[in-house]
From TrEMBL:
Its EC number is 2.7.13.3. PANTHER family: NITRATE/NITRITE SENSOR PROTEIN NARX-RELATED, NITRATE_NITRITE SENSOR PROTEIN NARQ. It catalyses: ATP + protein L-histidine = ADP + protein N-phospho-L-histidine. Residues 229-296 form the Signal transduction histidine kinase subgroup 3 dimerisation and phosphoacceptor domain. InterPro entries: HATPase_C_sf, HATPase_dom, Put_sensor_dom, Sensor_HK_TwoCompSys, Sig_transdc_His_kin_sub3_dim/P. This is histidine kinase. The keyword ATP-binding applies. The chain crosses the membrane at residues 12-31, 37-61, 119-148, 168-188.
Length: 431
């Protein structure tokens, strides 16, 4: 267990140091972007040059800000994009696009972030890489002294004994600074992300506007999903149970006509009718399970997911602290999301192991489904993952996917534990 924790600590430290080096490069880019924005804005009255230049410069700034948001997300700081949606009929350049850009408060918050972000990124990035590098320098100092103090090809180098002693003393000091740098690096990266969030996160008004837009989209997706589900149920009933029941009625009617003059044939028809009734009953049970599985109603989410894991062809473990029952719609959404994720693992991942983690943190249900497959999953390819995201979004839930080539694949889902999330209620409180 300790070896795993040590490996994770080293990995997080190395990633943070690499992110610190990246932040230095990105911070330097803020300065020319700041100058370009000022120049393009100042040139607007000059033959309308700004009408062409400003949209392009703003696109670069937003691309840079989105990259900063993504880097912050690597260290646990979530920053939502705050930009207003592009109105219909707005072209790539022109007065309408210019007005859309300059009237968006997020444009000016991005601009206000450029210089402070450059200074903060440089300072924190340099600190992130300087501390471990100083430790590395201390560690390599001893081998360097020994190398230079060795007689190579008859050319001896005589170093004072104090210098050799200094080389020996630098080793523990270097190890200490390297360990300190690896510990401090993730914290410095998180501080950098929180500083960027002060400027790049949406304001209260922008959050409400984005929330309204999101609710409009999720409502439309939910209506479409419900309509598709009703069509599926109707199709399954028409092609399955309904057809068998019609055949059953015809067989029984024919048996009634033949019961007196051909009892043998009537008995065969009745036997076929009995088989059709059993098949229709099985199909109806499958249809009901697709709407609300009985195991979910009987055992709750914990028991239903454990039953899913037992029936999986891939060895699957379940780690859960979810006790009691949740609201029925939320339970159903969480169950079907996990079921779809496990089905994707079986169909596409070529994995040898999978796991499901379910934890309740206050009013938030956190679900995680992972596997050791080949990775490369993409929400934009296929309908399974996109359908999971729509199902969760209807309850104010979110889904994130991590599936680099070579694996592992981790699907993380967060779902409020109430069918009506407090976040969906737009209060009229002050900002």
């Amino acid at each position: 267990m300790r070896s795993v924790e040590t490996r994770d600590w080293i990995r997080d430290g190395l990633r943070s140091v690499a992110a610190g080096a990246l932040s230095i490069v990105l911070a330097i880019l803020n300065i020319p972007l700041f100058a370009l924005f000022v120049v393009s804005l100042a040139l607007t009255p000059v033959l309308g040059i700004g009408l062409v230049a400003l949209p392009g410069v703003t696109a670069l700034i937003r691309l840079k800000a989105d990259l900063a948001r993504r880097v912050a997300g690597w260290h646990g700081v979530t920053i939502t994009r705050p930009y207003r949606p592009l109105p219909a009929g707005v072209g790539p350049v022109g007065w309408k696009r210019y007005r859309w850009i300059v009237t968006d408060p997020a444009t000016w918050r991005d601009f206000a972030w450029l210089l402070p972000g450059a200074v903060g990124g440089l300072v924190l990035g340099i600190l992130t890489i300087a501390i471990p590098l100083y430790g590395v320098q201390g560690i390599v100092l001893l081998p360097l002294w020994l190398y230079l103090g060795t007689d190579w090809y008859g050319y001896g180098v005589n170093w004072p004994i104090e210098s050799v002693g200094e080389g020996f003393l630098s080793l523990p000091q270097g190890l200490a600074f390297l360990a300190l740098g690896m510990v401090v690096a993730p914290w410095l990266r998180r501080v950098d992300g929180l500083f960027a969030k002060l400027f790049l996160a949406p304001t209260r008004a922008a959050e409400l506007r984005l929330r309204v837009t999101q609710l409009t989209v999720t409502r439309a997706d939910t209506v479409d999903a419900q309509a598709a589900e009703l069509r599926r149920i109707e199709r399954d009933l028409h092609d399955g149970a309904q057809a068998r029941l019609v055949s059953l009625g015809m067989a029984i009617g024919l048996a009634e006509e033949l019961v007196d003059r051909d009892p043998q044939t009537a008995r065969k028809l009745l036997a076929e009718a009995r088989e059709n009734s059993s098949t229709a009953l099985v199909e109806l049970r499958h249809l009901v399970r697709g709407i609300h599985p009985p195991v979910l109603a009987e055992r709750g989410l914990d028991g239903a997911v454990r039953a899913l894991a037992l029936t999986s062809v891939i060895p699957t473990t379940v780690d859960s602290d979810v006790t009691g029952r949740l609201e029925t719609p939320v339970e159903s959404a969480a169950y079907f999301a996990v079921a779809e994720a496990l089905a994707n693992v079986q169909r596409h991942s070529a994995a040898t192991f999978a796991y499901v983690s379910m934890h309740r943190e206050g009013d938030l249900l956190r679900l995680e489904v992972g596997d050791d497959g080949h990775g490369g999953a993409d929400k934009t390819n296929g309908t399974g993952l996109a359908g999971m995201e729509r199902r969760l979004a209807a309850f104010d839930g979110t889904m994130t996917l991590s599936s680099p080539p070579g694996g592992p694949t981790i699907v993380t889902m967060e779902l409020p534990c109430a069918s009506s999330s407090p976040r969906t209620m737009l209060s009229s409180g002050t900002d």
